[in-house]
Specification:
Blueprint (H helix, E strand, L loop, with lengths): L1 H39 L5 H27 L4 H26 L4 H26 L3 H27 L6 H44 L9 H18 L3 E8 L2 H8 L1 H18 L5 E6 L2 E7 L3 H17 L10 E7 L6 H17 L5 E3 L6
Parallel strand pairs: 4-5
Antiparallel strand pairs: 1-3, 1-4, 2-3
Helix pairs in contact: 1-2, 2-3, 3-4, 3-5, 4-5, 4-6, 5-6, 8-9
């Protein structure tokens, strides 16, 4: 579960990096176009041209820094996003709202700037705020940025209307901001819903893992083992292939606990489980049946081959050094599904074989050839 969350996080980070690189490259092209438009517009004042030329240089430099930082991988992506949020918020307040008003921006220019970039820039900043700061803080930041931009635009529209200079363009500007606010609210609802469903999915996966996996070893537990064995028996019946089951436990495990303590006993269980998982076939499954007892499920494996596999596992256990030079041995009972038995009958025969292995001196593998009646 933890690996899955980490994998999804890495994949999401990769997608964000690609999106920011593409956006940075496109942003630099837009900056060049905006600067060219200002230079070729003879109606603009000299102060306006100089001010926005400096701003465009700052925007181009910042875009270049973002792309370069993403390539280098330093600082972290979250730190880059926070710097982006601060810089873009400053840009939206100063150069998209306040300064145009101070330079005597006309209503047609306000309309053109709104639909060409300002409103989308505000939406990007608000979305970034919600992404970076979850909960109430992100909402307050996004709402504050949006309302400030809206208030400046609405104030200019109202002032123009008071002086009778509004020819209907102001209403369209207000409508654009209202629609943008609705879109922002819709994006927020979707983001909250997605976070909620993802949290529920994570909680469900954790509960499922706790219900079907052994906490100590990470192996499937007895409950999951029954489901796996039932499904394997059904497959063996339908396909007519072999199915073998090895029931084994650690020899004198109580003595290990009494001599070295339960902490070392837990380490023994963990070490054996990890080691055997790495030596088994991908089609096989190791299950912690309870205490020091385990089950190995061997699909499409006849009894003779299962005995070889069990003996190989027995030798691997005997050779494995564990905590404080503790070594463990194990006894194996092996049974093969005959095509008509129930799961309980197969397990009973494997258990009978395990007791025979213990009676034979332990650290051995024993089959039971006769079938249950």
């Amino acid at each position: 579960m933890i690996e899955r969350i980490a994998h999804d996080r890495i994949r999401f980070d990769g997608q964000r990096r690609i999106a920011y690189r593409v956006s940075g490259a496109l942003g630099m092209l837009l900056i060049l176009y905006a600067q060219f438009s200002i230079l070729t517009d003879s109606d603009l004042s000299y102060l306006f041209r100089v001010t926005y030329a400096i701003n465009h240089c700052a925007l181009a430099g910042f875009s270049y820094w973002v792309i370069w930082a993403l390539i280098l991988g330093w600082p972290t992506l979250d730190q880059i996003e926070r710097v982006m949020l601060g810089f873009f918020t400053f840009e939206a307040i100063c150069f998209n709202s306040v300064l145009p008003l101070l330079f005597g921006q006309t209503l047609p220019t306000l309309f053109r700037e709104t639909i060409s970039g300002n409103i989308w820039f505000v939406l990007v900043i608000c979305t970034l705020s919600i992404h970076l700061y979850s909960g109430r803080r992100g909402v307050i930041m996004a709402l504050g940025i949006y309302l400030f931009s809206f208030a400046v635009a609405a104030g200019q529209v109202l002032m123009t209307d008071v002086y009778g200079q509004d020819n209907g363009i102001g209403v369209i500007v207000i409508q654009i901001y209202v629609m943008a606010g609705m879109l922002l609210g819709f994006l927020f609802v979707i983001a909250r819903y997605r976070d909620h469903t993802q949290r529920l999915q994570v909680e469900y996966d954790l509960l499922e893992q706790m219900a079907f996996n052994d906490v100590l070893t990470g192996l499937p537990n007895r409950r999951m083992g029954y489901q796996v064995l039932q499904s394997q028996i059904a497959l063996a019946q339908r396909g007519g292939h072999s199915l073998s089951i090895c029931l084994w436990d650690i020899d004198h495990f109580k003595q290990i606990n009494d001599t070295y303590g339960h902490e070392v006993g837990d380490i023994v269980l963990q070490a054996l489980a990890e080691h055997l998982k790495s030596t088994m076939r991908l089609s096989d499954m190791l299950i912690r049946w309870g205490g020091e007892e385990f089950v190995v499920v061997l699909p499409e494996t006849p009894l003779a081959a299962a005995l070889i596999v069990a003996d190989r596992l027995r030798e691997a256990i005997a050779r494995l050094p564990i905590e404080r030079d503790v070594r463990a041995t194990a006894s194996f009972g092996v049974s093969c599904y005959d095509g008509i038995e129930t799961l309980e009958q197969v397990l009973q025969r494997a258990d009978k074989a395990l007791y025979a292995a213990k009676a034979a001196g332990r650290n051995t593998v024993m089959p039971v050839l006769e079938y249950s009646k």
